[in-house]
Amino acid sequence: MNMRIGGLASGMDIDKLVSDLMRAERMPLDKLNQRRTFLEWQRDDYREMNKLMFDFDQLIFNGVGRQSTFIQKQVTSSNPSAVSVKNISSVNDFSGFLSVEKLAQSATMYSSASVTDDASKTISQIDPTFTSSQVIKIQAIGEDGKLGDEVQITVNPTDTLNSVIQKINDQTDVNAFYDQGTGRVSFTAKHTGNALNADGTEAPEIILTGSFLTSTLKLSSDSDAAATDSDGDGIVYGSKGVNAEFTYNGLATTRSSNTFQINGFEVTLKQETNGSVVNFSSQPDVDKILDKIVEFVDQYNKMIEKINGEVSERRYRDYQPLTNEQKEAMSENEIKLWEEKAKSGTLYRDSVLSGGLTQMRYDFSNEVTGISGYVQLSEIGITTSSNYLDNGKLIIDEDKLREAIANDPNGVYQLFNANGDGETQSTMGIADRLRNTLKSTMDSIEKKAGNTYSTNATFSIGKTLEDLDDRISDFERRLINIENRYWSQFSAMETAIQRSNSQAMYLMQQFGGA
């Protein structure tokens, strides 16, 4: 390191001289750092716009982009305590009447005698003959009314009855239960109805295999046997599954479950109607559908207001990012006011964002071809504001929109979600058009500014930042050399002055001595 002599001989403030000289030398470096800071602000603002568009894209996907949004219906039943009806996937309104002759029931079976007085006992304690592990097999009716696959469970002598019951409940389509009062075990099929084999013939709803089930637990081999009075003494140890029997719009029919679907709506039978008829009908739930469309329009307006604000915000080039030295000379309020100006205009007249806004306006204004009914948003009461200051915001005529939803909710759905040929823009619904535009715009922005997980080398601003970092590092090394040179020169000057002073002093002493 060079020896730094700070003005002892010359009387000059060398520190300040070097500092002032370096301030001038550092000006290009300050400009590089300011450029870097501005690019970071610009990158972050681009990412904020991408987040805004991504959130709107998800709102479309979960709102007006879903058929379920437009098939929400209010369903009325003349006797909801007997029959309830709700819409699942029907796009059209429906109505009808039905009577319930019989409710579906699950097959049951239970022990013919007490098994134990304590279900926490081990199997070997309950049945001393049970000395080795045994694989039991259980088959039961499935949700589709067909006899399900056989399930195998290993029972060990050290297992408790409670633990075996838990295995059965967890692994099979049977609910097992131990009754402390009677000491018996009960099995109930988890699904109602009369079981069928794969070939359509009738089958028991529960089939049990293994001496643990039939001997230790004293159960019948299947639910049919349990429900049969084999001894003629009037005693049975279970009941068969029963299908629901009802008459729908005059047609007598059956189902294995009390809950089933007809033409896209779900019917739940709750009690027998004893010959009386239950009427039901549906109509669009206008309020719920309207709320989703209003939410869509509101979020679109907020998004384009924010983007328009960014692309029209002027840039104040006289207000560059502050250096640390500049901040030290300013108050916090002054720094805040300065940076508000310095940060403005990062996206001024950005072509990607401006192009995305223009394309979205086209997406809304152009009619959807290839569909019947509503082909433009104006037909359902959604128009573009005539005020140019609104920059393309949408306006809703709520009364007209309500009427359109009530008259043809499926037509409103098609306007937003028509598939078309999947390629031609004019045949796509509004929602698909917008999502395509949003994706294209977000992809372009990501090429410029990346995302949270991107490395600088993968997007254009990042590459510029890396280049600036290299230039800044090189310049900082250069400044160190320059500062060392200045100090070396001033030190040499100080040494020369000191030598000159010493020589003058010597001469004065010599002349004085003479």
In terms of topology, how is this protein built?
Elements (H helix, E strand, L loop, with lengths): L13 H49 L4 H4 L2 E5 L5 E5 L7 E8 L5 E3 L12 H4 L7 E7 L10 E5 L5 H11 L2 E6 L4 E6 L16 E4 L1 H6 L6 H4 L11 E2 L4 E5 L2 E5 L3 E4 L2 E5 L8 E7 L1 H27 L11 H5 L3 H11 L8 H15 L16 E3 L9 E3 L1 H10 L1 H9 L12 H20 L10 H54 L1
Helix pairs in contact: 1-7, 1-13, 1-14, 7-11, 10-13, 11-12
Subunit structure: Homopentamer.
Keywords: Bacterial flagellum, Cell projection, Cilium, Coiled coil, Flagellum, Secreted
Organism: Bacillus oleivorans
Q: Can you describe this structure?
A:
This protein has 514 residues and is of the alpha+beta class. It has three domains: 14-67 and 288-462; 73-102 and 244-284, no CATH class; 108-239, no CATH class. It has helices at residues 14-62, 67-70, 123-126, 161-171, 211-216, 223-226, 286-312, 324-328, 332-342, 351-365, 398-407, 409-417, 430-449, 460-513; strands at residues 73-77, 83-87, 95-102, 108-110, 134-140, 151-155, 174-179, 184-189, 206-209, 238-239, 244-248, 251-255, 259-262, 265-269, 278-284, 382-384, 394-396. α7 packs across α11 and α11 packs across α12 (409-417). It is elongated, with a radius of gyration of 42 Å.
